[in-house]
From TrEMBL, chain A:
Source organism of this protein record: Rhodanobacter panaciterrae
Residue stretches making up the HTH gntR-type domain: 14-82
Keyword Ribonucleoprotein among record annotations: no
Protein name: GntR family transcriptional regulator
Source domain of life: Bacteria
TrEMBL record, chain B:
SUPFAM superfamilies in the cross-refs: P-loop containing nucleoside triphosphate hydrolases (SSF52540)
Keywords, alphabetical: ATP-binding, Nucleotide-binding, Transport
Protein name, entry field: ABC transporter
One Pfam assignment: ABC_tran
Boundaries of every ABC transporter domain copy: 5-241
Amino acid sequence: MDASLLSIQPAASEPIYRQIVEQLRRLIAGGQLTPGESLPSVRDVAGFHAINPMTVSRAYGIAESEGLLERQRGKGMVVSTTRQATQTESHRLALLEPQLQALARHANELELPAERILRRLTKLLGEER
Amino acid sequence: MNAMLRETESTTAPLVASGLVHCYEGSNALNGIDLVLQPGSVLGLIGRNGAGKSTLIRAMLGLLQPLAGSAYVFGEPALKLGDATKARIAYVPQQPEALSWLTAQQMLDFVGRFYPRWDSSFAKHTLERWQIQPNRALAKLSPGERQRVELIRALAAQPELLVLDEPAAALDPVARRELLREIALRAGESGTTVLFSTHIVSDLERVASDVAFLHQGKLLMRCTVDETKERYARLWLPPQASFAAPAQALSRRRHDDGSLSLVVARDAHDQWPEAAGLPSARLDALGLEDLFVEIAE
């Protein structure tokens, strides 16, 4: 993996370390990062994006404790090979949770009935397939 | 206990300010500032023009004598720094003026001798990359070029404490990114402690570990950059719910329609104030810039 695969938005209201963890989770869930694949070093990520290396370490640490990454001797951080933390359906569903909550909030603000939204959503999901 | 804590802090921390007060012609520039920088931290100081950022930096380094309070650099009183301690610090003022009769090259060769860890190849290469004519007298350079030369001097010295007053002003976006990269990597790898002031908030969000908001001579807030984003938010309440507004808020603004905007913080149990749970309330995450604008108004 190359450090440029991450996109960092310093001005976003989400802290940078969480942006990194979130993107790793998606890249791994989506299969762009495969088990055993090496991650760029903390220095490479920090240097490429001109961000504090401690922020990158923190993100890697969290990803490791969540089972997304593991530390391999001599190779540094790699995508976890032992546990496919994000591959089960409920894990993948959990990735959608923020968007689902936002959708529910907007729907309530607009006072729209649930059935209409579900019908529309079902249609959209059908079209995607 | 408190006195003991202060004692250990002042002997180990790269920078300590304690009760700093200063005035210019009757107006308060610093209004009792306490600030400690831990080794390896990168503290970004934000404030509007005239908030007292430069005065605070100069007082912390012993370059001006405050009316009250004291400052320590690596445990030494800032007003009486020895040569050994000075060699561990590099400071770039907003408008450098020293040694202006020398050329950039002469100045770097000269001051390099005073720094035990001087990196002359870094100085040479960065002069080229940042497009400075090495054989021109410093006095003939533009203010921006002048500050770039000073930044090169400060970085080539490989100091343990790096203090930069508005460094971004003199740099184009590419050079600015390069400077941020240097700051970030040195802090992370060599444990360099950095204090820099800026009003470009996104620079600070990239590299700073900590942020301090200076407003009208007072520190409004001092915490880690991640905390500012996770602990604070803007709470909006419609007119009919504004009675429920929490008493504790960092800022409070009533709009013309009677609705209310507040900047609120999570409590000790990580909970938002109760009013945030009202169905008509809205809680919005804040970026650092929004947070600063909200509480500095």
